[in-house]
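look at this one:
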Amino acid sequence: MRVRACIVALSLAVGCAEHASPPEHPPAAPPVPTPSPSPAAPAPLAAVADGGANASPCEGDTLDLLAVLANAACRIGEDEGSALRNVLEDPSRAPLEVAAAALPDGRVRVRIRNTGKTALSVPLLIHSALDNFSVRAGQRQLAPPQPDWPPGFAFEHSRMLSKLVLAPGGSAEATLRIDPEIVTHEIRNCPPNAKCAPTTVSRGRLPPGETSLTIRTPLYSIRADLAATLAWQAP
């Protein structure tokens, strides 16, 4: 009787073990996504004088006139040049001042300044066969001065129009080396009705000492007031 009770007890124990549910484990936590790195902020554009990153080399407060003339980005066509010239011929619509000063080394600095209260678009014209800066000593025409062109400058075409945009009160400057040689421009041996380039003929040199010079710049205009005068010491 005791043996049977043990067998029954053992059977019940085994049955319980067979039907026991395995211990439950808590569900695994969902994986936490790794944050993707933020895109790098774009590097700031380099600042450019007179207007910031998007400034044009042809406009601003203080400009190098020769650099503008040499820069192909400042070129304009004949139609735009003519339209700007029509404005420039009217002093009330294009208030400009042209001045010049002698430098200690004998060069001359010429300055074009916008005296108005709004930005002003100024047309410029240079030609490979003309005196782009014309210099006179009284009634005597001097040989073309030597502008301090940027290195590597060359004429892309014989005739080039450019646009300079001056801020209110802004100016553009150029330095020139004056040649004291007196010249005349004469047309010789030209057939009738033909277009012939003038020949430059030397007429001597200015005497040493102070003389008054009148300088015209490449401004695309015939306005008489757009010429600079200064006292210059001839060597």
